[in-house]
Amino acid sequence: MQFKQPDPEDLSYFQNILNPGRVLSDDEARSRCASDQTEDLCFLPALVLQPESAEQVSLILKHCYEQNIAVTPRGAGTGLSGGALPVLGGIVLDMGRMNRILEIDTENFQVTTEPAVITQVLQEAVREKGLYYPPDPASKGSCFIGGNVAENSGGPKALKYGVVKDYVLNLEVVLPQGERIWTGANVLKNSTGYNLTQLIVGSEGTLAVVTKIVLRLIPHPTADLTMLVPFRRAEDACAAVNEIFLAGHTPSALEFMERDALVLTQAYTGSTLIPLPDDVAAHLLIEVDGHDPEQLMQDMEQIAERVAHFDIGEPLLAETKDEKERLWSLRRKVGEAVRAHSVKKEEDTVVPRAKLPALLRFVKDLGKKHGFESVCFGHVGDGNLHVNILRGNLSESFWNDELPLCIRELFEEVQRLGGTLSGEHGIGYVQRRYMDIVFNPAQLQLMRAIKDVFDPKGILNPGKIFPEASGNLP
Ligand SMILES: Cc1cc2nc3c(=O)[nH]c(=O)nc-3n(C[C@H](O)[C@H](O)[C@H](O)COP(=O)(O)OP(=O)(O)OC[C@H]3O[C@@H](n4cnc5c(N)ncnc54)[C@H](O)[C@@H]3O)c2cc1C
Predict the structure, then answer these.
(1) Counting atoms of ligand 1 from 1, which one is nearest the CA of 208?
(2) Strands of 91-94's sheet, edge to edge?
């Protein structure tokens, strides 16, 4: 499909339907929407539109569908797979103005929100009513709830509480031809027809634009404890993960940080909180939560005993709220710190939990074999390891031509281990070339057919998810 770039007539149409100042064609606005947090990729859109209502989204999409103009929805632009990049130019639909929490229903434990509410703002708003919305990507201070729905995001708490899909009850969406629909009902159980809600969750802005979100909430836990355990062998830290579960515990978070992840993050933040003697190879950050502080202390003691047979250093139990927050703040800043150190390709590998030590070993051996460095961290309680391959001094040709073959090797191993390409960051633009590793032609054809039903002309977020090029993809 060849798309048209918006012309002066399209511009005046958009100026008529949007409020003043919401049709942007200046360099500053276009460059702001040209990148997200994926590597150093940059694709300029022709135009940025900032709708303020679902009606406006509908009018925009109807027009773009008729005129064959590509539309890329954009949340906060914190994505790590290039989902919000306008790879074929056209229009970026900047959802940032639709940022109101519409209702917190304390009787039914639900919140209805527009898509551009920052995840942490939503969490704090429901917290004030004693309620809890657990999914907490490490980017929760900047990413939007709509982006989280589009990516089916996770985060540390996914381990005990599940990911975004486990909380989405109902969505208002605008389809590529402009129709507005609700996908389901605001109920906790629903066996009524196909599950359109869950089809939209994780569809990365390729099927519809999300304009309202109804989420279920739960009571907020009243107590938690955090402990950091240093390991002298990184593989042991991965092996310890499964032992904790086998001992009968489900922590509320279980995060892995390789030594270099913490070295870079402490340097980036100026922190010296965590001692990093030469013989420490990795850490596990473990959190338990609930309502009974004594029980939580017992759980943590049992977890510490259970991992004590590995070669570990002295565990650090956060004594104060401040210490706990500083530990978590370091963990949340790892991705940012690694990116500040070097351009990187981030592979969001996920395997069955017991396969983590094998995965880590493979990553490091692959790096030695091909001459690249990686920094690994992630939500290992879910088997989700973020493998960050550093650009460093790698040549242009290695980075662009040879490294994708190494990454293919990595994902082939992930697939052999029973895992898949992405635990939470999505496929977007950068991972689509690996889809054939985990899906056969019949599976991919089914997905394409779904896309065709929603968007026969393919105007919505083209160039994403599917391995083949769409239009003149760069
Ligand atoms: C430092 C850092 C840490 C991170 N940690 C985590 C983590 O722990 N867990 C995790 O899961 N992710 C994490 N991420 C990734 C990222 O924050 C998430 O994918 C997040 O959900 C993206 O939200 P966003 O608003 O920035 O979306 P964007 O990046 O703007 O867009 C992401 C996708 O959603 C689509 N989209 C956005 N809004 C809409 C809408 N209203 N309707 C339809 N489609 C839409 C876009 O087209 C795109 O495909 C991290 C990122 C960074 C930079």
Answers:
(1) 43
(2) 23-24, 47-49, 91-94, 71-74
**For each of the chain's 474 residues, which pLDDT tens digit applies?**
689 999 999 999 999 999 999 999 999 999 999 999 999 999 999 999 999 999 999 999 999 999 999 999 999 999 999 999 999 999 999 999 999 999 999 999 999 999 999 999 999 999 999 999 999 999 999 999 999 999 999 999 999 999 999 999 999 999 999 999 999 999 999 999 999 999 999 999 999 999 999 999 999 999 999 999 999 999 999 999 999 999 999 999 999 999 999 999 999 999 999 999 999 999 999 999 999 999 999 999 999 999 999 999 999 999 899 999 999 999 999 999 999 999 999 999 999 999 999 999 999 999 999 999 999 999 999 999 999 999 999 999 999 999 999 999 999 999 999 999 999 999 999 999 999 999 999 999 999 999 999 999 999 999 999 987 544 565
The CA 449 to ligand 1 mean position distance, Å, reads 25
Report the sign of the C-alpha dihedral through residues 245, 247, 253, 254, in that order: negative
The minimum-distance atom of ligand 1 relative to the CA of 163 is 11
pTM of full prediction above 0.85: yes
Residue with tokens 């496929």: 427
- Token code pair at residue 453: 């039903």
Rg (CA), the chain: 22
d(CA 468, CA 474): 12
**Greatest CA span in the chain, whole angstroms?**
71
Q: Which of 80, 136, 183, 339 to mutate to test the pocket of ligand 1 (most atoms within 8 A of CB)?
A: 80
Enumerate domains of the chain plus CATH numbers.
101-219 (3.30.465.10), 221-330 (3.30.70.3450), 342-427 (3.30.70.2740)
Q: Could you tell me if 264 and 338 are in contact, meaning their C-beta atoms sit under 8 angstroms apart?
A: yes
List residues near ligand 1 (CB under 6 A): 36-37, 72-80, 83-84, 95, 115, 137-139, 143-144, 146-148, 150-151, 153-155, 204-205, 209-210, 335-336, 424-425, 428, 461
The residue to mutate among 92, 142, 151, 347, having the most atoms of ligand 1 within 8 angstroms of its beta carbon, is 151
- 3-class secondary-structure state, position 324: helix
Give the C-alpha separation, 99 to 101, whole Å.
7
Q: How far is the CA of 138 from the centre of ligand 1 (A)?
A: 11
Which candidate, 434, 392, 399, places its Cα nearest to that of 415?
434
| H or E segment to which residue 299 belongs | helix 293-307
